[in-house]
TrEMBL record:
Pfam families: Fer4_5. GO terms for molecular function: 4 iron, 4 sulfur cluster binding; metal ion binding. The chain crosses the membrane at residues 20-41, 117-135, 155-174, 181-201. Residues 222-254 form the 4Fe-4S ferredoxin-type domain. GO terms for cellular component: plasma membrane. InterPro entries: 4Fe4S_Fe-S-bd, 4Fe4S_Fe_S_CS, Electron_Trans/Redox. Keywords: 4Fe-4S, Electron transport, Iron, Iron-sulfur, Membrane, Metal-binding, Transmembrane, Transmembrane helix, Transport. The lineage of its organism: Bacteria, Bacillati, Bacillota, Clostridia, Lachnospirales. It comes from the Bacteria. This is 4Fe-4S ferredoxin-type domain-containing protein.
Length: 262
């Protein structure tokens, strides 16, 4: 099982690294598409299709058909979060000799997951009211986009820089801190009607008694197919699938092999 976990981790890391190097602005581009719709509404102008909406539309369709694999594999900000968390985990294990993965209690995670919806509503409302322009220089993902483009943000972005630093600290304390709690585009993805064939399921009849490894390993504390109302919170990191000791988790409905033999 450890070999499979290592293989999946290496494949995922390679894909993340590729997107981080060649397409680091996908997240901000996708949200720019959403922003352009509300900017048109605020200006009482017709909504016109643009290149930002091309990216937004493609990612929304992919999310509906396949789940939030963009978040788990392609988002540069999410990949940065994974790197920060794994670095912290390595330091904890090698220097402080602390075993296991660290993070927040389930109740805290559930409460903080709602923050991204509040943030999304705040940003969209600020666009509609024309107040969004006053937020210039406060966006941590604008600072991140500049850094990945090889540009240093000037003094007007000092609030955005501070917020980015605070987010980086948060990434060290909880797996996928930004994606789960603060990402406005993640809130949009989480509200999408994801097809059942894109969700993770398990055959509970084959689960060992009092196992729960999949939920313990899931950064969102999901019960896999038991958390249907929260399925949008799944970032498709495949951690549950590779952790299962009986290979009992897969995307799409799980078929009982014993039934199939009959």
């Amino acid at each position: 099982m450890k070999k499979k976990q290592r293989k999946v981790r290496l494949i995922r890391t390679a894909i993340q690294l590729g997107f981080f190097i060649f397409y680091p602005a996908l997240f901000s581009t996708a949200f720019a598409g959403v922003k352009s719709i509300f900017q048109a509404l605020a200006a009482h102008q017709p909504i016109t299709w643009n290149s930002f909406l091309d990216v937004t539309g493609v990612l929304l369709v992919i999310t509906i058909l396949f789940g939030r694999h963009f978040c788990g594999y392609a988002c540069a900000f999410g990949s940065l979060g994974d790197a920060m968390y794994e670095l912290t985990l390595f330091i904890r294990q090698k220097i402080f000799h602390k075993k296991g993965r660290h993070g927040y209690p389930e109740k805290v995670v559930r409460a903080l997951q709602k923050v991204k919806y509040i943030l999304l509503a705040f940003l969209l409302l600020s666009i509609l009211t024309g107040w969004y322009a006053k937020l210039q220089g406060m966006s941590p993902w604008d600072v991140f986009s500049m850094l990945t483009a090889g540009k240093l943000p000037n003094a007007s972005y000092k609030i955005g820089i501070v917020l980015l630093i605070l987010i980086l600290i948060g990434m060290c304390t909880q797996e996928r801190f930004f994606c789960q709690f603060l990402c406005p585009m993640g809130a949009v993805f989480a509200m999408m009607p994801i097809l059942p064939t894109a969700l993770f399921h398990r055959n509970r009849g084959k689960c060992p008694a009092k196992c729960g490894l999949c939920k313990k390993r899931c950064p969102a504390h999901l019960e896999i197919d038991g958390d249907t109302p929260l399925s949008g919170e799944c970032i498709c990191c495949h951690a549950c699938e590779v952790t299962c000791p009986r290979k009992n988790i897969q995307i799409g409905p799980v078929k009982d092999r014993e039934t199939e033999k009959k």
